[in-house]
What we know:
Strand order of the largest sheet of chain B: 2-1-4-3
Radius of gyration of chain A: 37 Å
Distance between the termini of chain B: 68 Å
Mean pLDDT of chain B: 85
Largest interface: A-B, 47 and 44 residues
Low-confidence stretches of chain A: none
Structural class of chain B: alpha+beta
Number of domains of chain B: 2
Order of helices and strands of chain A: HHEEHHEEEEEEEEEE
Low-confidence stretches of chain B: none
Number of helices of chain A: 4
Shape of chain B: rod-shaped
Number of strands of chain A: 12
Oligomer: heterodimer
Shape of chain A: rod-shaped
Mean pLDDT of chain A: 84
Largest sheet of chain B: 4 strands, antiparallel
Distance between the termini of chain A: 77 Å
Number of strands of chain B: 4
Largest sheet of chain A: 8 strands, mixed
Amino acid sequence: MNASQLRAPTDRAQANLIGFAVAVIVVTTVAVVGVALANDAVADADRRPLATHAAERLADHLVAADAAHTRGPNVLRSRATANLTPAALDAAVPPLRNRSFRVSLGTETVVVRGHPSAAVAGGSAARRGARVTRRVRIERAVERSTRIDLADRRAVTLRDHAGPVVVVVDPAPGQSIATLRAGDRIVLHDPDGLAGRYVVSVPQTRPLDLVFVTRGRPVVVGATATVTWTEPTARTASLVVVVGG
Amino acid sequence: MAERTDRGQLATSLVEATVGALLLLSVVAGFLWVPVGDAPDARLDRHAADALAVLDAEPPAGTGRSRLSAACRSPAAFATERTELAARLDAVLPAAAFGRLETPYGAVGPAPPAAVSAGTATRSTGRCVLSLRVWVP
């Protein structure tokens, strides 16, 4: 080996070391900056604010078809909704515990606990409040009743109804009301004549005609029937849920 | 000869470092460009589902179980419901939103523009399936 043959590996080794040092610095810098950026991004975005989660769960519970205060999906019973308490909502929606919240229908407040801040923007991700708006139908049950004289009227029209219908037939001697028809369905039938109080499940068709059917002979004057049903009066409103951070 | 060798070695290290840095940045980019929070489409989907649920609870203009099931029954029943259905559809959607309800016998509401992201919901009423598309212009 002569000197020139020895020199080249030494030079390459030195040059390699500087290059390696620069490369290590570059890769380390990028790695540190990258991890810092990723950490910030995860802290900001990936962790969904707990208040948003609680607000969505509460809104879902309030419009759920199987909740105690609803009659169907997005259909709330007025009185049961007004009687909701923070404790009952806590039990149904665990993420809501220890948070301030407000539930309002249109402009009227239904349930409130503490002073939730409606401000969705501002503050750190963990402290941010959340707001969810849903559209619901609120039904108030109104008891309706009508009494007809079977001698001159045989039909009652229910414009709107919910739940069972109560029919009381007050017979007169010799009457022959045998059948009650609701829409296209026979809901009561007794060949000996209907008499007394009946609770009847009727089809959901609206409007619904209840028709008393006689068998041949005319109805004796004095026979009456009383029909009692629940007519929902409804309005549509926005359900607004605000949950504090 | 020696200079060329030096430059070659240095450049190789830096190229390797650059490739490594790009690799790291590509992983970081996966964290940075994550879709954040509630997508607007999800909110529109919810508005559409709410609107269908409310319409399905309302008594019809003609006869039937609800507005939606009456609109689904026959072309004649759909014609009866059409006007009121359009008015109620406007009322149950948020003020800024538009909706188009599609039934087997025709549609209610304006057609959505092509280049807009819309939320959709479908509901079956026993006789047929209705779909509602909701968008904010």
